[in-house]
Amino acid sequence: MLDKIILFSIKNKLFVGFMTLMLIFWGVWSATRLPIDAVPDITNNQVQIITSTPTLASQEVEQLVTFPIEQAIANIPGLEETRSISRFGLSVITAVFSEDMDIYFARQLVNEKLKEAQEQIPQGIGSPELSPVSTGLGEVYQYIIRPTEQSKNKYSAKDLRTMQDWIVARQLYGTKGIAEINSFGGELKQYEVVIDPDRLRAMGVSVSDIFTALEQNNQNTGGAYIDKRPNAYFIRGIGMARSLEDIGNIAVGKHTPPLFIKHVAEVRLGSALRYGALSYNGEVDAVGGVVMMLKGENSHEVVSRIKEKLPTIQQSLPEDIVIEPFLDRTDLVQRAIHTVEKNLLEGALIVIFILVLFLGNLRAGLIVATAIPLSLLFALGMMNLFGVSANLMSLGAIDFGIIVDGSVIVVEAVMHHLAIRKNHQRLTQAQMDEEVFHSASKIRSSAAFGEIIILMVYIPILTLVGVEGKMFRPMAQTVVFAILGALILSLTYIPAMSALLLPKTVSDKRSFAERMISWLYRHYQPLFVRSIRLRGWIIGSTVVLFVLAVGIFSRMGGEFIPQLQEGDFVFECILPPGTSLKQSLETSMQASRLIREFDEVKMVIGKTGSAEIPTDPMPLEASDIVIVLKSQDQWKSGRSYEELGDAIIERLKDIPGVFFEKSQPIQMHFNELMTGVRQDVTIKIFGENMDTLAHYAQRVSQLIQKTEGATAPQVEKVSGLPQINVTYDRVRLANYGLSVQEVNEVLSTAFAGKKAGVVFENERRFDLVVRLDSLHRTGIDDVQHMMVATENGQVPMSQLATIKYELGPAQVSREAGKRRIVIGFNVQGRDVQSVVSDIEQKLKGVKLPTGYYFTYGGQFENLQQATDRLLIAVPVALLLIFFLLYLAFHSIKQSLLIFSAIPMSAIGGVFALLLRGMPFSISAGIGFIALFGVAVLNGIVLIGTFNQLKKEGMTNLLHRVITGTEMRLRPVLMTAMVASLGFLPMALSQGAGAEVQRPLATVVIGGLVSATFLTLFVLPLLYIAFNSTFSWRRPSAKVLTIALLLISPIALHAQQSYSLQEIEQIALKNNGVIKAAQLKLQGASAKERTSFELAKTDFTGQYGQYSSAEKDLSVGVSQSIPLPTVFAARKKLYQAETQLQQGQLALQQNELKRQVRNAYQQLQYLTFKEEQLLQLDSLYNNFIRIAEVRYKAGDTKKIDINTAQVKKGEISLLLQQNKTIQQATYRNLRTLMQTEEAFTITKSPVYEPLLLSEPSDVQLSQHPLVQLSYQEANIAEHNKRLERAQALPDLTLGYTNQSLIGMQTIGGVETYTDRSKRFHFATIGLSVPIFTATRAKVKAYKYQKEAAALTEAQLKARETEFLKKSEEIQTMENNIRQSQQTAAQNLQKKQQELVEPLLKKVKSSIEKVAKAKGVQYVLDSSAGSSVIVASGEDLYSSVKKDLGF
Question: Are 897 and 952 in contact (CB under 8 A)?
Answer without folding.
Answer: no
